[in-house]
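SAMPLE LOG
Freezer: B-3
Tube label: C17
Construct: single chain, 481 aa
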Amino acid sequence: MKIQAIVMATVALCVLAGTVSAQTPVTPPIQYFGSLRLRAEDWNWFPTDKANGAYNFVGGILRFGANRSTSKDDVFLELAAPILWNLPSHAIASAPQGQLGQGASYFASQHGKNFGIFAKQAYVRFKSPDKSGSNIRLGRFEFSDGAEVTPKDATLAYLQANRISQRLIGPFTFTHVGRSFDGGQVTLVSPKSTLTGLMAFPTKGVFTTSGMDTLTDIHLGYLSASFPRIGKEKSDIGRVFGVYYGDARQGAVKSDNRTLATRTTDKDPISLMTIGGNYVVTKNVGQNKLDALLWAAGQSGTWGAQRHGAFAYATEAGYQWRTAPMKPWVRAGYFMASGDGKSDNSTHGTFFPILPTPRIYARFPFYTEANIKDLFAQLILKPGSKTTVRADVHNLQLANSHDLWYGGGGAYDNSNFGTAGRPSGGRSDLAMLYDLSIDFQLTKATAITLYGAFARGGSVVRSIYKSPDSAYGYVEVLHKF
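STRUCTURE (predicted):
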């Protein structure tokens, strides 16, 4: 472990033990907690001539920590230890085929180091004396945009967590490392609204087990206002937000549809402002339930040497039969993120999803929410109180055939931009995606997930790979203690 990690952990442990607080005569109880997640993944990426995208590997992450809570403050420390086994050494092809799935991304990022241990979270939260829930948090922590308020309505809470949260800023916890943020967060709570402000730097992580360092060349600012309303027949939540993203990394070549030579010489920083909002509503219809949501965002600023202007939006609706067998919930929606129409002008028009958790919105993560049109239908079933089954069908098209097919979840070190692009070949038909997941809560502390997906590639995929077919599946066990 690096000296930086040792110092942070030592200071936090001292605070938890009460040894550095002269103002607290009686040390409050310390709560210890932890979790272990193991996942066996099987990848069958679109086939190539030389590299092999058919492989399997196992990844895991052990998280353990302690929390001391009083009426005035919380002190929180959590360490993480990710580990990876059997990463593929043969799953990286020459451009434009590139890295063949996330196993290849892990392998390219590790440099032979498949284990790490670092401070995942280490912060102090100062609580408002009026007991309103207002607080100030300083240190290292995880953050998810769109999750500032947890609605009491279960359907509303599910939609916020799975269809709104982490579109732009998230901890990317699906990967075996994830990311955190170093900085400060202010939350102001009133009976009708919650205001949230954030200024932070992201940490390393995601695909590299070295998650301790801070990416100080990336500046993140966030401000939002959330307005939840819970009623007997109708519940809703609205949010307006603004995000500033600045990226001055000199070693990371930008990913866009310009030539490699142009991108390599463009050392100007990225400076983007994203303004948007969302509205989610659920309404009782007899014994059943109707839901709808709208999310939209616009971007402006500079993309290196180019001006930047882009947009994205999502609209969805669903209906639940709450008294029928297995309580079927049918949903459908459409998402669109703009692409760039010309590679040789002074304007960049591709929507940039910043630092998201992309796997929430692309469960088979061969694409991300940039230059994409996603028309989908979804069915959720509850065969039992401990089991949830979900099936999705997605028709995926590129928003602009002159732009790239993008993948990735944002910056995670100083040399990799974090989003990669493959040429479209002047085509827009990306893929049809079919997937199925089964989540089973075995005990209060242990959950098991089974997931499988199949993608039939369209003309974009066929222009790059030998076969249009790709599949991905995993078995995951999560135990909390």
